[in-house]
Design a protein that fits this description.
This protein has 155 residues and is α+β, with helices and mostly antiparallel strands. The strands form 3 sheets. Strands 1-8-7 form a 3-stranded antiparallel sheet. A 3-stranded antiparallel sheet has the order 2-3-6. β2 and β3 form a beta hairpin. The two termini are 19 Å apart.
Length: 155
Amino acid sequence: MLKAIDIMTPEPVTLSPDSDIRTAALLLLDRKINGAPVVDKNGRLVGVLTQSDLVAQQKQVTMPSIFAMFDGFIALSSREDFEREIKKIAATKVSEAMTQHPRSVSPQTPIEEIATVMVNEKLYTLPVVDSGRLVGVVGKEDILRTLLEHKHHED
């Protein structure tokens, strides 16, 4: 059974939390990748920046919904969500736009589990982490490549 370590890209393109957004966007476009892990100085995974995170900067601000009842007001969305959305839209550094606490897998995670996570959670780039340190990434292309190779060997 294939595992993350068998199909991952070792030493992937990474970003620093202090990188500016424009540089990060150019890197993703130049390398033709959907996203990149964000690592601190010690190689520890602190987030992931995806093209979706960057596109989110262009969206309109959603004002918090408020419901009036008995001369009072009830917020239907949290103030924290609103503040996080504003911060992401106004981001100038990777740390402000990235997805914090990203989903990751271990080197021993089976390919079937990786594919399930990607489909169910709509994730296309999964960091591979061992003891808190980034050791690689698995992208949807890695899964497809493996399927094609496996199919080729069967024929």
